[in-house]
Design goal:
This protein is an alpha/beta fold. The protein has twelve helices and eight strands.
Length: about 280
């Protein structure tokens, strides 16, 4: 067996072992991968199985956050049961008394418990608060169109917020506002637990606030960060424009930027992409 065949064989064996261990994303640099494969090719073919703790616990993205627990593999039923229990607890949350007093209901995440793709928005608005479901109203209608353009629907993805209660302006309860830091801190565990249960292959962060909450960054604008993957506990995060921003600006440039970000997500998930999809939303010159 020549050197090329040794490396190829080691690559296949290495990836199969990681898959067997439950790893769904490999956050390593190219040089590190090559170095490990060369080492594996030179070693004995039989190597001991790597424990989940060795392969599944990435460094936390935010140094101020404690290290996340090792990833726990769950069956579809276990994920559904765990999410139902978490949802039951979240619906009774009273960490933010001022929000609890005015909300109609907690808007917990919804979708496929085994989804490969998860979208994270900021907070429910008036329509979501009324219906108790994420992404309703105009933003929800646009999201449905986006999912349709990707060849998906709500039943195939998971939708969640960084804040599960509607944030309103005290002087004008009909007007929504951005969540404050205390509210985000209180609600963060609900989000992280949902992500750890679903354990999607890719996360999409709608807007700077959602991106900051997932990565520990302090972006005030999504533009410098969109278009490239970031990290949440070993899961790639693609930040992009929020659907409400697309509606507000009604710009083909922003629509195309959002779509380019989602094309990268589709490529990461190895989804088929047609020429029509690749050339959608290109502004006319």
């Amino acid at each position: 067996m020549n050197r090329y065949q040794q490396l190829l064989s080691a690559t296949v064996a290495h990836l199969r072992q990681l898959k067997q261990d439950g790893v769904r994303f490999l956050p390593l640099q190219y040089q590190e991968i090559v170095s490990e494969l060369v080492s594996n090719a030179s070693a004995s073919p039989s190597r001991p199985s790597r424990s989940p703790a060795q392969t599944q616990t990435p460094a936390p993205a935010n140094p101020n956050q404690p290290e996340p627990p090792p990833y726990k593999k769950r069956t579809a039923k276990e994920k559904t049961d765990d999410l139902n229990r978490l949802r039951s607890d979240a619906l009774n949350c009273a960490k933010c008394p001022h929000l609890k007093e005015k909300r109609l209901q907690v808007v917990f995440g919804a979708g496929l418990p085994t989804a490969r793709l998860m979208f994270v928005g900021v907070a429910p608005g008036k329509a979501e608060d009324k219906l108790g479901k994420p992404f309703q109203g105009p933003s929800g209608e646009l999201l449905d169109k986006i999912l349709g353009a990707m060849g998906l629907n709500r039943r195939q993805v998971y939708l969640a917020y960084i804040l599960n209660c509607r944030a309103f302006v005290p002087e004008n309860p009909d007007r929504d506002r951005a969540p404050n830091p205390d509210e985000l801190t209180n609600c963060h565990p609900w989000l992280t637990q949902q992500i750890r249960i679903v354990h999607p292959e890719v996360l999409v962060a709608f807007g700077a606030l959602a991106f900051n909450q997932l990565t520990g960054k302090s972006a005030t604008n999504i533009k410098p960060f969109r278009g490239k993957f970031h990290d949440f506990e070993g899961i790639p995060v693609m930040p992009t424009h929020h659907p409400s921003s697309v509606i507000r600006h009604s710009s083909m440039v922003i629509k195309r930027q959002l779509w380019e970000d989602l094309l990268q997500v589709m490529e990461r998930l190895i989804m088929p992409i047609s020429e029509k999809q690749r050339t959608a939303f290109i502004p006319h010159r």
